Amino acid sequence: MKSKPPLLAIDILTLFPGMFEGPFRESMIRLAKRKGLVKIRVHNLRKFTHDRHRKCDDKPFGGGPGMVMMAQPIFDAVESLRKRGEDSRVILFSPQGKTFTQQVAGRMAGLKHLILICGHYEGVDERVRDGIVDEEISVGDFVLTGGELPAMCFVDGVVRLVPGVVGNSESVRQESFQNGTLDFPHYTRPSVFRGIEVPKVLLTGAHGKIEAWRREQSRLRTRQLRPDLLREERTGRI
Ligand SMILES: C[S@@+](CC[C@H](N)C(=O)[O-])C[C@H]1O[C@@H](n2cnc3c(N)ncnc32)[C@H](O)[C@@H]1O
Q: Which of 64, 148, 183, 227 is the most buried (most CB within 10 A)?
């Protein structure tokens, strides 16, 4: 019997494929791959270069420090991976991009094929950005050495929103940022730890009261830690 195609296929272009081995072999991503819900392939950009020495970077025109990733291997890789008739979205990781949020993750999880480009050194030749990239994504206002760690965060954040990956979809729905608020506090056994008691309402079994307490805690916590989220909720920006 023919197996069903994955809901989401992700191709990652990197000069350091070994960095992905551990994180993609564990936990939720491993499970998602095993269930056949996602297909993730990591490609060494050096395989796409025309250079005899597998060179993928060169000195910047105009001088200055560092190296720049060349356009040719990235163009060739993207063009060979784009599937005919399939809507492939090409993402470049960059500190200059739009911030990766839960909303962006949700939108990406609804797509069929993502091609992720991990920059390194001073970044990629600007013609990559102008010519083949659909979206630039940043994981925050700081500069990392390469796009590999951002790609891992991105893949984890997106894959867990693919339907069926997280066993209990309710647990995804109630998480921080899903509804413009932060998650409520969680407790597990024992009910008293080092003299600190679990809030009594959680031990009552009264589902209505527990729900109300959680909603209230969630708003309280958001007001204390991330009031900007509530402002965004009021102005309809999320
Ligand atoms: C050292 S950085 C280049 C920084 C670039 N010269 C600048 O100042 O904007 C090398 C690569 O790491 C990745 N990177 C670094 N910080 C990132 C961030 N905050 N979000 C996403 N990608 C990032 C990008 O792929 C980038 O091309």
A: 148
The pLDDT of 34-54, averaged and rounded, is 96
Ordered DSSP codes for 168-190: -HHHHHTSTTTTSSPPPP---S-
Per-residue pLDDT, 134: 97
**Residue whose CB lies within 8 A of the most ligand 1 atoms, among 93, 101, 128, 133, for a mutation test:** 93
Distances (CA, A) of 7 to 151, 152, 156: 19, 19, 15
Distance between terminal CA atoms of the chain?
A: 43
58 CA to centre of ligand 1 in angstroms: 17
Q: In the chain, pLDDT over 70 holds for what percent of residues?
A: 95
154 lines ligand 1 (CB under 6 A): no
Cα distances (Å, whole numbers) of residue 98 to 46, 135, 141: 28, 8, 10
Residue 233 has a CB neighbour count (10 Å cut-off) of 14
- Domains annotated for the chain, with CATH where assigned, are 8-159 (3.40.1280.10), 174-234 (1.10.1270.20)
